[in-house]
Specification:
Strand order of the largest sheet: 6-8-9-11-10
Largest sheet: 5 strands, mixed
Radius of gyration: 38 Å
Shape: rod-shaped
Strand content: 5-15%
Order of helices and strands: EEHHHHEEHHHHHHEHEEHEEHHEE
Helix content: 55-70%
Length: 471
């Protein structure tokens, strides 16, 4: 089972006190603090006089009718619950917003101290401000313990409305304990109004009626709390099950992608390796034919064929052995790129500028060219076929670094997509999603970096930075 600390939300801050690490959610903490402070207004916004509790008790005594007595008890419970909901809910939200870690492990005991401390502090502040004494008795203790248990089990992570309903049900159930006469000796109902209601019940000899009514309310609201807790538990289990299924599916998908990559790579390697044999044969035959030929012009042609075959042999070696590194000028690299992309992309779309043609990069020309070609092809996919422009530029923005920039005037990329575009398997074009992942892998293996900037509806710019070879 996942702990609440493992499902911490966004907008998280971290501070350290000695060996204690405190992680807090700013938004949730502010929400809790606001609700908590609203609780200070409870006695002023909802004074006891506005509920006419003593009026009901006074009217009940001479008539010896328990309706007024039960009405007074009901109003007392509702008043206490209405006063308490803001600061209890605020304290619980602050408890959720702050996680304590020691030695890398969540230490929940600090949350217990924090929650009880906040409730006791609120009671003390209300007494200092309004001279209204809230009794932190057994009902309040039960409420705090129950919600702390839900929080520890990660069952209290529900929306605000569900939190309010749950806290209301809990507080209402336990507040009725304060008006049961037989529980007074055990620390229940020590407040002034609770004591007065039980005194009137004893005077009217209606203690049994008051107890029966209170127990009925406790059962009703306790049952409601139990149902809500059961639903929260089922929701929690479903959430864990869905998360586990999602992770399993993601792992399976990643495995399939890796298997696809390995199969494609293996097939390509085998195919390229098989080309070596006929290429070597062709080189040998051309060399032999050149030595036997007396016509100078034909011998010259044989020489050019030999040079081309040797270039092809070098390219095959670079494909087969990806760690091969040779010095390449940016002009050589970009000529390879432009030769490839010109087959597919109209020349009028491409604007090319190279301010550092002699700058040398040490790397695998085939793989570097393929990485840049991927960026150009991606740009071509998102631009308009009539008005689209793709700018390719090479420059030296800082010493010992050459940058290759591919910029288009296409539809752009959303901020959400930018965070995912380098993930293996992610694609906005329903393709395999290996292009940009491959590009990033190649650039990083050449000790370089790649950055994507974009604005939706305006442009996308991919900037590759590579170290200049100074050896």
């Amino acid at each position: 089972m996942r702990r609440a600390g493992e499902i911490f939300m966004e907008q998280t801050g971290i501070c350290k006190l000695g060996g204690l690490e405190i992680r807090y959610n700013r938004i949730l903490l502010i929400q809790g603090l606001v609700l908590y402070l609203i609780g200070l207004l409870g006695p002023r916004v909802l004074p006891a006089g506005s509920f006419h509790i003593y009026m009901d008790m006074t009217s009940a005594m001479p008539k010896e009718h328990c309706v007024g007595l039960l009405s007074a008890a009901l109003k007392l419970v509702l008043m206490n619950v209405a006063r308490m909901i803001p600061h209890y809910l605020g304290a619980f939200l602050m408890n959720e917003s702050v996680h304590f870690f020691r030695g890398g492990k969540r230490t929940f005991v600090y949350n217990i101290i924090l929650t009880f401390g906040l409730i006791l502090l609120m009671y003390q502040m209300i007494y200092l401000l309004d001279r209204v004494r809230y009794d932190f008795g057994f009902p309040a203790f039960l409420t705090v313990c129950f919600v702390l248990l839900l929080s520890y089990m990660n069952l209290f992570e529900v929306n605000m409305w569900n939190k309010i309903v749950l806290v209301f049900s809990l507080l209402t159930a336990v507040q009725w304990l304060d008006v049961i006469p037989d529980l007074t000796e055990y620390g229940f109902g020590r407040g002034d109004v609770s004591t007065d209601i039980k005194t009137v019940a004893a005077y009217m000899q209606e203690e049994g009626t008051l107890t029966l009514f209170a127990v009925s309310m406790i059962i009703a609201f306790g049952f409601a709390s139990g149902i809500q807790t059961a639903l929260l538990y089922k929701e929690h289990k479903l959430k864990i099950s869905n998360e586990q299924r999602r992770l399993t599916e993601q792992h399976l998908y990643q495995t399939q992608i890796e298997a696809l990559k390995m199969r494609n790579a293996s097939e390509a390697q085998n195919l390229v390796h098989d080309l070596k044999s006929p290429l070597t044969t062709a080189q040998g035959l051309i060399s032999l034919a050149g030595m036997m030929e007396e016509n100078p012009l034909i011998r010259e042609y044989f020489g050019k064929i030999t040079v081309s075959l040797e270039s092809m042999s070098v390219m095959i070696s670079e494909i087969l052995y990806e760690n091969t590194r040779v010095p390449i000028t940016t002009e050589e690299l970009m000529n390879t790129v432009l030769a490839q992309v010109s087959i597919r992309i109209p020349a009028k779309m491409i604007m090319y500028r190279n301010e550092a043609p002699e700058a040398v990069i040490r790397g695998n020309k085939i793989r570097l060219a393929r990485a840049v070609i991927n960026l150009v092809n991606n740009a071509f996919e998102v631009v308009d076929r009539e008005t689209g422009k793709i700018e390719i530029s090479v420059e030296i923005p800082e010493p010992e670094t050459v940058s290759i920039t591919v910029r288009d005037n296409g539809r752009g990329i959303s901020p959400e997509e930018i965070d995912k575009i380098f993930d293996i398997g992610y694609s906005g074009k329903q393709s395999t999603g290996l292009g940009l992942a491959f590009t990033k892998q190649v650039i990083e293996k050449h000790q370089g970096t790649i950055r994507i900037d974009s604005k939706e509806g305006e442009y996308t710019e991919a900037r590759v930075s590579l170290p200049i070879d100074i050896t």
